[in-house]
Structure formats: structure tokens, C-alpha cells
Amino acid sequence: MEWVLPDPFVIDIHVADEAIDAYQHVNNSEYLRWVEQSSWAHSEALGLSLDRYRQLDRAMVVHRHELDYLAPAFAGDELQLATWIVECDRRFSLTRRFQLVRVNDAKTLLYARTRFACVALSTGRPKRLPDEYQRLYGDAVIEEPSAPSKKALFNCG
């Protein structure tokens, strides 16, 4: 699979009939659900389960989602959803990127980006990332290539 960034964490998705809407393709809410599943699976793979979140009285909650739907998925499709942590300020927030690809034709169906903020589970108020979050999430950051400048894009002198 050709991914936009190196070393993704990937989950496999089989599109079930229940994901299909009145237009006979996957409903947009399913994509968001898969993004959430991927985030949790990656966090657990890094060693941060829901139980550990509770023990530390911290949670990473969504501050902002951006989803760019590029093409539809259909019942029976086999998909792969990749995620990367692309920013972690090691204080209050982290950002993930996502790429959803249909396996049989390697077509990218979705790009997404989610910014998370750290809060105390007990109060819902913003809190600093615990040292464990800083280490595990911070060490998992994949460097994004910088966007080319307008000058470079238009080859201006």
C-alpha cells in the first residue's frame, strides 16, 4: 500500500451492510467511527488503554475533526485505515492524520486529521499530558513534510 507518510499504524475494515446508507454507499458517519476506532487501537498498541486513562485521570478528547471524503466505499469492500501522530506538544494536545484506502484498487477514499486535547476525566477540565502520555505519544510522532511555499509551487523567482 502506498501511504502518504511512513510507518503507519493500520487497521483492517470490512464494510458491513449496516454501514450502507440510502445512497447505497458507506454513510459519512461510519468514516468518523472508523477514525475513532483507529485512534483507540493505536493508543492501545502504544500501551495507553482506557483503563490506563482512568488510572491517570486523563483523556484525550477531540477538539477538531477534519475529514476529506474523496470517493465512496461500498458493502463488501475491504479497507485499510492508517493513522499517524503528527504533532504532540508534550503539554496539552496531539494531532493525528488518517488515510483510508480500498485494498482491491489502492484508491484513497479519505484523508482526515484530528486534534485532541488533554482533560482530567474527573472534571472534564484541561490538564497537562501526564509524563507517560508525553513519552508514548511524543515518541510516536511522525514528521510531516513541510508544505511547499507558494514561491516553490509557482516557481517564482
Main attributes?
single chain; 157 residues; alpha+beta; 5-stranded antiparallel beta sheet; 4 helices; globular; disordered C terminus
Mind explaining what this structure looks like?
- The chain is α+β, with helices and mostly antiparallel strands and 157 residues long.
- Strands 1-3-4-5-2 form a five-stranded antiparallel beta sheet.
- Strand 4 and strand 5 form a beta hairpin.
- The longest helix is centred in the first third of the chain and has 19 residues.
Rg value? 17 Å
Largest sheet entry: 5 strands, antiparallel
Enumerate the strands of the largest sheet in spatial order, edge to edge or round the barrel. Answer: 1-3-4-5-2
**Order of helical and strand elements:** EHHEEEEHH
* End-to-end separation: 37 Å
Contiguous low-pLDDT stretches (5 residues minimum) are 149-157
Q: What would you call the shape?
A: globular
The whole-number mean of residue pLDDT values reads 93
What is the subunit arrangement here?
A: single chain
Number of helices: 4
Which structural class should the secondary elements be placed in?
A: alpha+beta
β content, as a range? Answer: 25-35%
Portion of residues within helices: 25-40%
What is the compact description of this entry?
The chain has 157 residues and is an alpha+beta fold. The protein has helices at 28-46, 50-56, 131-139, 150-154; strands at residues 9-14, 59-69, 78-88, 93-102, 107-119.
